[in-house]
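As promised in the previous annual report, we have extended the structural survey to additional targets. Below is the entry for Dipeptidyl-peptidase.
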Amino acid sequence: MQRFRTWPITATGTILPQLKEMGLKLSASDIDGTSKSSSKPTISEALVSVGSTGRGGTGSFISENGLIITNWHVAHEAVRVASLAADKDYLSDGFSANTQSEEIKSTYECWITTSCVDVSDRVLAVIKAEPDPLKRANAIRDCTQAIAAEAQKDAEGVRCDVQEMLPNESYVLFTKTRLQDVRIVYSPPKSLGNFGGDTDNFEWPRHTADFALLRAYAKPDGSPAPYSEDNIPYKSRSSIVVSESGAEQDDFVFLLGFPGNTMRYAPASRLKYSDEIAVPAMVKDFGRKLDMIRRHEKASPEAALKLKGTKKSLSNEFKRCKGKLVMMRKLKLIEERMGEEAELVEKAGEEAKNALDRLSAIYNELKEMSAFDNAQDALQGIYGGSGILSAGNLLNEFVNHEFAKRDEERESRYRERNIEMLVKYFKTRLDDVVVPYNCEDIAHAIKIACAFNELAGVKDIIGEDIEAAVVSSHEVLSANFEKAMRGDADAMGAVKKDRFVRAAGSIYDVYLRNRDKERALISERDELFAKIHELQRAHAGEGVVFYPDCNGTLRISAGHVSGYNAADAVFHHPRTTINGVMEKAADAKAGGGGGSDFECPDRFMDLVGSDPALGDVPTCLLYSTDTVGGNSGSPVMNAKGELVAVNFDRQRQGLMNEYKWSKDYSRSIGVDVRYVLCLVGVYDDNKRVLNEMLRK
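The corresponding C-alpha cell record, generated without further manual editing, is:
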C-alpha cells in the first residue's frame, strides 16, 4: 500500500536508497536541514512558503541575496495589489526592476521551515483523556495552539504551527523563519506568464512562462522585519544553483515544496462524498461566480483588476474540480478502494467492518447536512463570494462572541497570535469590493437561505435595497475593521450596528449548532481513520510504510523527465519550445481558436522572428513527480540539486493526484529554466537580474 511518491522532508534519510536508485547524486544531509543542525547549508533551507500570509505557494532562493523564484500565478496577487496601488497594470504589462531601488513593495511574506519536532505524546494525552468527540476536537485545537504559542513566545520573526500528520496519532511542531518584507523583482506580462489561459490549464503540451522573481529583505543585521526603506536584501543561508543546460528525456529530477491536502488513505465513503456531493457543489458554485465576474469586470479597468485574483483562483479550481470527477471515474478509484476495504475486512474481521460501516454512516449524515451547509457558506461569502458577507460574519463572531473569551479559549483564528494575519487578509478583501458583484452574490445567498426557515430572517435585516446596504456597510467596515479586530471599543460599537454584522448575528446560534455537529462528526471520523490505519499496518505486507497525507508542510518528491500515452496512438513528448508559442499565437491570430488566451506580445514575436535560433529554446518540461496544489513554484532540480524548471501545473490526467499517484498518468509541468533565462536576459534585457541568477 505504497501511496506516495512525495514524502515528508524528515523522511529523506529513510528513502535515500530509493532516491539513489532513481538517480539522486546527493546525500540526505545535503537536502534536509530540518531534522538536525548542520554546519553546511541544505536545499530545504532554500525553500520558502510564499503568499500574503506566508502561505499560498512555494518559492526558492536562487541567490545569496534573497532572490526568490516562484510562479507567475503564485505572485499574481502581489502583482495585482501593487498594480492597484500604483494605478499601473503590471499584470498585463509585466514588470522588470533594472535597479534594486525599483523593486516594488508587496503584500507578501515568505516562511522558511527551520525545524520539525514531534509533539505527538502531548497531543495524544489530551486525545486519550476525552471520549466526547466535540470536546476532544476542541481539546486538540487548544493543545496544538498552546504548543505553537509557547514555541513562538518572545521569538522575533518566527512562526510556529502544529500540524496533524496522521489523525489521532502523529503531530509535529513546525518552526519557520518569517520574512515580512518581500518585493517584486520581475514578472512577465500576462500574455506570456499565463499564455494559454484557461484553455491550456491542466493540459499538455504547454508553452507558459509561469514564473516570477521576488526578493526577501531584512534588517541590516539580518533579522526579519516588516517593510522599511532601511532594509537590505536578506542573506539566505542556502540558495539553489540555476542550471543553464536544463534537463532531458529520462533525466532524474526531484522537487521540494508545500503540497496541500491529499486523501490517499480516504475510505470509499469519503471518496463517494467528494464525487457525489462536495466536488459537484463546488463546480456549480464556481461556475456561477465566474459568470458573474465575466459580466462585472467589464464595468471598468479598476473593477477588472479587483476581480482578477478571484477570477484566476476560481477558474483554476473550477477546471481542476471537473477534471477530478472525470479521472476518479476513469480510474475507478472508488471501486479500487472498496476492494481494498473488503480485503481488510476479510483479514481483520468485525473490527474493520464496524469502523467502515460507521464511517459510511458519518458521511451519510454529512450528505444530509450538505444543502443547509451550502446555504450557510453562501451567507458567509466563502470561495470568492461577497467580501461584505464574509467580513460581516467574521466581525460578528469576533466582537460579539470571541473577544470576551480568554485567548486560550478562543477559536484558533481569533487568538492573538493569528489576528495580524487575519486583519491582513480581510483588509485586501474589503479593498477589493466591487459593489455590483457583491450585490449579486448577496442576492443569491439570500435566495437559497430563504429555503430554510432558520436562515430566512437575514433577508429582512439586509433589506430590499441591497446596493444601498453594501455601499453603507463597505464604508463602515473598511473604516473600522482593523481597529475592531484589535479591540478598539468605538470601532467595535460601530460594526455591531452594521446590518451585515447583525444579519450574521441573527443566525449565529444556528451556525454554531451546525458547526459543532459537523466538528463532532469529523472528530469521530478521525478516530475511526486512526483505527483503520492501525488495522492496515497490522495486516500489511513486510516493508510497507505508511506516510502521512500532505497537509501544506515541507515535502520532497522525485521522478524522471517523461512523456505519457495521452490516448490511443497518441504519445506526448516531455518538452516544448518557443516554436510552439509562435505556432499557437499565429493560429489564434488567424482565427484558428483559443482567441485571447494565445495572444502574444508583438515585441516577443518580432524578437523570435529576427532570431530563428530562439525558436528552439525549451519552454516547458514534463516529469513524473507527485505534486498537488501548493507545489506551485516548487524548484525542479536535477540529480546534483541544480534548478532545471519551476513546477506550475499537472496535465489533466494527473488531476487525481489528490487521491492517488499513478506512474502512467501522473505528470507534473514546469517552466523550463532556459525559457526563464531567455525572457529575463534576452526579451527584457535585464542583465542585473540575469547575472545574479547565474552568479556572475
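The longest helix spans residues 508-538. The radius of gyration is 25 Å. These points will be discussed at the next consortium meeting with the crystallography subgroup.
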